[in-house]
Amino acid sequence: MSQVIKRFWKEVQVAPVDDGGYAVELDGRAFRLPGGTPLVVTSLPLAEAIAEEWRAIPPAAGFRTSDLPMTQMAGTQLERIGNDRDQIIGGLLAYGESDLLCYRATGSLGREQDLLFDPVLEAFAQRHGVCPEVTRSLLPLVMTASLQQVFAKALERMDDSALTCASICAPATGSLILAIGLAEGWVDPVSALSMASVEERHQMAQWGEDEALMHEIEKSGNDIDVALRYLALCYGIETNQA
């Protein structure tokens, strides 16, 4: 759990910087991320959304970094994605090796997975030229060289903002294919969460609601929403979300 911090500033401002972009300032001083990088973003809507997060902290109130999702996302992009794209892409490719959409159950769960997953694999194949294999076996699939190359190229084509989004969506869904679809805009978040949670929801339909599972599904949905809101703001699309 992250450390509780007391609000230490009075005013939050967004200020343009000389070489382009917008800095978020606390009491007139540029805010720096934990690694020392100034919090400067290229999109004014994103800068304003970040500033609003800081303004929303009540005076003298305690808060955690998790209360500042757009700030966290910007920090990830500025201090992790931008500095080590190759390592980030390598980590994301690992999700493709055990992609949720490629591993199916038998029986009624398997049929539900087929209905949800197959259209996404077809859409991926139409856009990227390769249809991933599917198994119902307990044995792991071996990723083909052609699929690995397609995954890598899709990630390499992404700018830092989209790669930041994908880096959140892959663990939230357990699927690199869904993460790519979300970042590229051809998978919607409601469908992605439905696919990511199909096994848990199937289990609860049989045995009753499980509070821990419900919490995990809610967290995954929130992570997806945050990542997509961040990406929209990076591209200058204002949202109504707080």
From TrEMBL:
Entry-linked InterPro entries: ATP12_ATP_synth-F1-assembly, ATP12_ATP_synth-F1-assembly_N, ATP12_ortho_dom_sf
Record key words, sorted: Chaperone, Transit peptide
Transmembrane segments: none
Family under the similarity heading: Belongs to the ATP12 family.
Protein name: ATP12 chaperone protein
